[in-house]
Design a protein that fits this description.
The protein is an alpha+beta fold and 173 residues long. The protein is built from three helices and seven strands, in the order αβββββββαα. The radius of gyration is 16 Å and the shape is globular. The chain starts with 25 loop residues before the first helix and ends with a helix. It binds zinc ion.
Length: 173
Amino acid sequence: MAKRTILIHPDPRLKTVAEPVTEITDQLRTLADDMLETMYDAPGIGLAAPQVGVMKRLLVMDCVKEEGEDPRPMVLMNPEVTWTSDEMATYEEGCLSIPDQYADVERPAEVEVGWLGLDGAQHSERFDGLWATCVQHEIDHLDGKLFIDYLKPLKRQMITRKMQKLKREKARA
Ligand SMILES: [Zn+2]
């Protein structure tokens, strides 16, 4: 396993719609392993392939946060939201591609998602709480959408400017 570099907003790859996975290759398994390692190391609870510059519809997540609880690393390929609750929930979201910036985002409180697993089988599960927010945030990444796209333009521009400055500083360092 190897850690991958996480792209920082603004980057055109983060605004691009990713391609469906058509075949489960060893390369894809390695990518999933690397992404999980990168996510846990960050630390984060979700990571989508475009965030490491791979334009495939694959995401990893693990929203188990309680100390002592077993981790639940999940790999979802070609995920599709098949049902959303009418009830909405607001979470303060962050993103590994937009470090240290947080904002409230409202999304359906529960979603049902279908996806292709690394086992080659089709899976379906209903998510709520943090898992529901996380899976919707990560699926957005596969469609070139970031959580700041839900914010008012002024707030979004402010965050984008901060990230441009951060990238300039990183490039100089
Ligand atoms: Zn994100």
